Amino acid sequence: MAKWRIPGLAARPRFTSRATVLVLVLCSLVAILAYPARQYIAQRGEIAAQRAKAEHARQQVDELRREKARWQDPEYVKAQARERLHYALPGETPFVSVSPQPSPGAKPSTDAAAGRPKAVKPWYATLWDSVDAADAALPAPRPAR
Q1: FRET pair for 57, CA 20 to 30 Å: which of 27, 42, 120, 145?
Q2: How far apart, in whole angstroms, are the C-alpha atoms of residue 119 and residue 84?
């Protein structure tokens, strides 16, 4: 089919002025709403993080309340005193088992709770020995003339 053209009429433009104005208005609306939308999304993320943090704190409070209730029980307090402080009831003979001394060629054993080697001497003896060693150190040599 052939296109019919009326002589004297110009070809109609693809975008009219109304369409151009509509496109500009839509683009400006997108540009205006982009920042608040981004802020809204960021704030929703912060709110979710704060809610998770509050829930974690609530769980910790519940755990501490349960532990406080356990400490109100006299039998639990007795059991903890016996275990942690090595207390004994009257008429009982308390004892603490001590591991034997290692042989001189053996590696030093590690403390299971802390994962570090057991100290041969107490810390204050080691500290005092280092003070004595620093006191007995030779004075620095004088520069040659």
Answers
A1: 42
A2: 21
Q: Are 117 and 111 spatial neighbours (Cβ–Cβ below 8 Å)?
A: yes
State percent of the chain over pLDDT 90. 41
Q: How far apart are CA 139 and CA 42, in angstroms?
A: 64
Stated as kind and residue range, the H or E segment containing 37 is helix 17-71
pTM above 0.70, yes or no: no
Question: 4-38 in b/e burial notation, b at 16+ Cβ within 10 A?
Answer: eeeeeeeeeeeeeeeeeeeeeeeeeeeeeeeeeee
